[in-house]
Automatic annotation (TrEMBL), chain A:
Gene3D superfamilies, per the entry: 1.10.287.130, Histidine kinase-like ATPase, C-terminal domain
Top-level division of the source organism's lineage: Bacteria
Coiled coil: 8-35
UniProt EC number: 2.7.13.3
InterPro entries from the UniProt entry: HATPase_C_sf (IPR036890), HATPase_dom (IPR003594), His_kinase_dom (IPR005467), HisK_dim/P_dom (IPR003661), HisK_dim/P_sf (IPR036097), Sig_transdc_His_kin-like_C (IPR004358)
Organism annotation: Alteromonas sediminis
Chain ranges of the Histidine kinase domain: 249-493
Keywords: Coiled coil, Kinase, Phosphoprotein, Transferase
Gene Ontology molecular function, alphabetical: phosphorelay sensor kinase activity
Name of the featured protein: histidine kinase
UniProtKB/TrEMBL annotation, chain B:
Protein's UniProt name: 4-vinyl reductase
Gene3D superfamilies (UniProt xref): H-NOX domain
Domain of life assignment: Bacteria
Species of the source: Alteromonas sediminis
InterPro entries assigned to the protein according to its UniProt record, in alphabetical order: H-NOX_domain_sf, Heme_NO-bd, NO_sig/Golgi_transp_ligand-bd
All residue ranges annotated as the Heme NO-binding domain in the record: 2-162
Example of a GO MF term: heme binding
Length: 493, 180
């Protein structure tokens, strides 16, 4: 057992410890409340930082939205400038182009103010420009703050000009500039504005590039248009050239009969003179009552009347033939000049071929088997039925001529749904052509046929018609075996 | 270790063995804190082990037995300061789960620097609950004491078995509580 004194001593020590513990606890409590205070403080700071950050993010978000929109360069500069002006509570703001060549995309002399929004104000703009210092067009990475020299005179509410450059290309820079009062300039705010620098910069460059591409595109389109006209002119002059060949041919072909018709007529004229003389002599003999049969025979002998009559008849026939030839050529030439007119109706190729067969029937006679097994449901094409009929007539007559001892005329079709074309094959089992002949085939007046049978214009006229119909023509021919013409028509879309 | 545990150990020793005993434990251990404990501060873990060592020497108790006895006594004290809401548990198993999920969580909120044991519940039937006790302090016998205190408190008869014990060479400590 412990004595009361000992007990007292123990209690005293215990109390001493308790007091000490209480002091410790109290100082610990003080430490805690200090900590709590600091924690609170730093929480407040954090909150402020977060608020500021979300403010920055909002700015960044809105500004990015503008950059990413499909606003034009001016549109973008306008919305960004007025947005920044509101953001920094500026009194006025604008964007200005510095360039050694003017870029039309950026509108000048515009200024934004709270009261009037965007408007033209030369005075305000020149005040801003007077304070912007751009040595060359290089990017200045940070915002520049320039004091206004005489704010009271220049713009009473503003004491500072802040501005920033955005390089567009080697030669041009856009400057965003704002007139501000004292309170609106804060390092922090400018720092926030900096966050969009890269984005805005590339947004501007992209738009400029787009513009350039558009311009280049337009140039290309123009060039293509020019090329197309040139090509048309070329085609035209090619046509003129072939017209030249044609004209020369026509001159030759027509000159020839005209020539012999002319000399024939001269001869007939001489014959007519001879006949007149003969008639005068006969008249005087009749007057003198001396004409008898023998005398008349002598006169006939003298004037060679039998020959004259026979020859005149020959000459007349030759002239009639010659004139027919000329009129044939003229007829063909007429179609030539009308080739390509009125290609607009939806027509059935099958109908066209069948009527051509009817017309050519004379030439085909009974000597040639005709196979025209075309299906009824062939797609229609757009064209001029009369002209195409003429093309087929010529092909069929040529085929008939190529098979003087008979043979087979075969007409087939083929539809290419993928390329949207309809092909017609016209084949014969005739004499065929060698490579030389195939080359000249389409030349005007090229013919191997005797006078009266061919003008040599058939295929050249056909070609003109087919070209006008955008038809591709292919020929395959083997001497002694036969010839196939393949006509490929485009089908309507 | 939180000061509350030292303050309560002091109370426990004084109540059980008298003022002089605590005095002689302090004299025997010569602790850095000088035995001046306040519940709001945190003290070196070694001080609790030194004090328990001294108790076991002076009172001829096995240190595990000392921890268990202290834990058993401590439960009602901790329970009294426990956050509101835990008092609805009147079953050992439910309460043990609440210690892990609610009580110690609340303790952690008030004292971020505390190091609390973690229980991983392995198996539970109507009558048996097995869990792994995880703590670098390896106070699984202290834990047994707290559970016994809890059982006393809710008036349930239980036995606590250390299926695995880190002090006996096992890799971990697993405790089973059986209701009788
Ligand atoms: C049956 C119920 C409980 C059990 C089994 C239990 C278990 C434990 C154990 C074993 C420790 C020692 C630390 C360690 O092992 O690392 C501990 C510490 C602690 N427990 Fe519990 N506990 C229970 C209830 C409570 C209650 C009701 C409270 C009240 C708030 C509480 C608060 C604490 C505190 C403050 C510590 C000190 C931790 C430190 O200082 O790092 N416990 N608990
Ligand atoms: N199917 C064919 N087979 C062989 N030769 C042909 C065929 N079609 C045309 N030709 C050759 O091409 C020439 C030109 O034909 P074309 O222009 O129609 O004039 P034309 O029929 O008046 O001679 C023909 O004279 C002939 O030598
Ligand atoms: Mg012909």
């Amino acid at each position: 057992m412990t004595s009361p004194e000992e007990e007292l001593e123990l209690l005293r020590r215990k109390i001493a410890r308790e007091i000490k513990a209480r002091e410790l606890a109290e100082s610990q409590l003080e430490r805690y409340s200090r900590e709590v205070y600091h924690t609170n403080q730093s929480l407040k700071e954090n909150l402020q930082r977060v608020e500021k950050r979300s403010f920055e993010l909002e700015f960044l978000h809105n500004a990015s939205g503008m950059v990413n929109s499909d606003l034009s360069i001016t549109g973008l500069l306008k919305s960004i400038t007025s947005y920044i002006a509101k953001f920094v509570a500026a009194n006025a703001g604008g964007f200005y182009l510095y360039s050694d060549l003017s870029i039309q995309e950026v509108e000048e002399a515009l200024v934004w103010t709270k009261e009037e929004q965007w408007h033209h104000d030369d005075k305000l703009v020149s005040l801003i420009k007077a304070h912007v210092q751009i040595k060359n067009t290089q990017d200045i990475p940070q915002w520049i703050i320039a004091p206004l020299e005489q704010p009271e005179l220049e713009n009473p509410l503003s004491t500072w000009l802040i501005y920033k450059t955005y390089t567009l290309d080697k030669r041009s820079t856009v400057v965003l500039a704002f007139l501000c009062g004292d309170q609106s300039i804060q390092e922090e705010t400018l720092y926030v504005l900096d966050t969009i620098h890269d984005h805005l910069s590339s947004g501007l460059k992209r738009r400029l590039a787009d513009k350039r591409i558009q311009r280049r595109n337009k140039q290309l389109v123009d060039t293509i248009a020019t090329l197309e006209t040139t090509q048309q002119q070329l085609v035209q002059s090619e046509k003129m050239a072939s017209l030249g060949i044609l004209a020369a041919g026509v001159a030759h072909e027509i000159n020839n009969p005209i020539g012999y018709i002319k000399s024939n007529l001269e001869i007939l004229g001489e014959y007519q003179v001879t006949f007149s003389e003969l008639l005068i002599e006969i008249s005087s003999l009749v007057k003198a009552n001396t004409l008898n049969y023998d005398l008349l025979q002598q006169l006939y002998e003298k004037y060679d009347v039998t020959f004259l009559i026979e020859d005149a008849a020959d000459i007349l026939q030759t002239n009639i033939d010659g004139i027919k030839r000329v009129s044939d050529i003229v007829k063909e030439l007429k179609t030539y000049s009308h080739a390509g007119e009125n290609i607009q109706s939806l027509i059935s190729i099958k109908d066209c071929i069948q009527s051509a067969l009817k017309v050519a029937g004379n030439a085909l006679k009974y000597l040639h088997q005709v196979e025209a097994g075309l299906p009824d449901n062939l797609p229609k094409i757009i064209g001029n039925a009369g002209q195409l009929q003429q093309v087929f007539i010529n092909l069929f007559v040529n085929a008939a001529h190529a098979m003087p001892k008979g043979g087979e005329l075969l007409i087939q079709s083929e539809v290419n749904a993928e390329q949207k074309t309809l092909s017609i094959f016209v084949s014969d089992t005739g004499v065929g052509m060698d490579a030389e002949q195939q080359k000249k085939l389409f030349l005007p007046f090229y013919t191997t046929k005797p006078v009266g049978q061919g003008t040599g214009l058939g295929l050249s006229v056909s070609m003109a018609i087919l070209e006008a119909h955008n038809v591709k023509v292919q020929v395959k021919s083997d001497v002694g075996l036969g010839t196939t013409f393949k006509l490929t028509f485009p089908l309507p879309q | 270790m939180k000061g509350i545990v030292f303050v309560k150990l002091n109370e426990f020793v004084e109540q059980t063995w008298g003022l002089a005993c605590w005095e002689s434990l302090l004299a025997a251990t010569d602790l850095p804190s000088g035995g001046i404990y306040t519940s709001v501060m945190t003290y070196d873990d070694n001080e609790i082990f030194a004090l328990i060592d001294a108790i076991s020497k002076q009172k001829s108790l096995h240190p595990f037995e000392a921890q268990k006895t202290f834990g058993q006594w401590l439960f009602k004290e901790l329970y009294a300061i426990a956050p509101a809401g835990v008092h609805q548990f009147n079953d050992v198993f439910g309460f043990l789960r609440a210690v892990q999920d609610v009580i110690h969580v609340e303790v952690k909120k008030l004292n971020p620097d505390v190091l609390l044991p973690e229980f991983e519940f392995l198996e539970e039937t109507d009558t048996a609950l097995t869990f792994e006790y995880r703590s670098p302090r390896k106070m699984n016998y202290f834990c047994e004491g707290l559970i016994l205190g809890l059982a006393e408190y809710v008036d349930q008869t239980i036995t606590v078995t250390h299926l695995l014990c880190e002090h006996k060479g096992d890799k971990k400590s697993v405790i089973r509580v059986d209701k009788c």
